[in-house]
Specification:
By secondary structure, the protein is an alpha/beta fold. About 35% of the residues lie in helices and about 20% in strands. The strands form two sheets. Strands 7-6-5-8-9-10 form a six-stranded mixed beta sheet. The protein has a four-stranded parallel beta sheet with strand order 2-1-3-4, covered by helices on one side. Helix 3 runs parallel beside helix 4. The longest helix is centred in the N-terminal third of the chain and has 14 residues.
Amino acid sequence: MIVVATEDFEVYHGVVNELRERGAEFTTQEPDDPLPPDARLVIVGPDEDVDEAAFDGEAPDRADVAVVPADPAAPREAVEEALAVMRGAAGRTVVGIDPGERPGIAVLSGDLVVAAFQVPATDAAEVVRRELEEAVDPVVRIGDGARLVGARIVDDLAADAPVELVDETGTTPYVGTGARGMGDVLAAVNIARLSGERIEGREIEPTAGEIQVIKSRSRERSDDNRTITESLARRVARGELSLDEALDEHRRE
C-alpha cells in the first residue's frame, strides 16, 4: 500500500492526482497518524520525513517502509519512483522514438510503459531530455525510418544519453477504429523493446526526392508562393536551418 502523508498541500494535490490517473492503490493520512499494517511506502513533501508516531500500534517497522520525497513542481516523478519501488525494482529507463513530423515517444521503466507522447519533431529532444532527468543508466532507441527527422533528433540527444538505432520494420501495429493517432506511440513502445546499434550521430545525405519535398513545403509555407533553392533545401534537410530560416535567407538573397 502507498500512503501519502504530507502537510504540503501542493505536494498532496499533485501526488494524489497522479496516483488516481495511474489507478494505483493508495491512502492518505496526517503525517503523525499510525500507518496501516500493509503500508510499504510513504510519499512525503520535499523537506519532510515520516513521523515516529506513524510507526505506533499495528504499523509496520520503519525498516520495512520506503520513503519517497515529492517535489511539488514534479509530482509525476515521485509517483513513478514510488510505483517502481512497489514493483520491486526500478528497472532501466528506456525511451523509444518512432521518428516523423510528429514522433511517437514512449518511456519504459523495465517492461512497464510509464509515459507516452506525440509532439512536433522540434520538441521531441526536449521532451526526451525531461524524461531522462534523474534516470539511472538510461538508453534512447530510435527507429531508422524518417531518416532526416530521425538524424536531427539523434544529434540533439547524443550528448544526453546512449542512443541506439533500431530497425523499425514491423513495429507499427494495426490500429483499429477509434484509436487513430495511436500507431506512432505504439510503434515507439515496440522500438523501445528492441535492441539496436549504438550510434553517436547520423550523417544523412538527402535524396533528390527529399530535397523536392522540402522545396514544396517552402512554397506551401510562404505567403508569396516562394520556393527555396536546392542548396537551402539541402541545409534544411541536414538540420542546419529551419524551413522558416531558409525562407528568410532566400528573401535576402
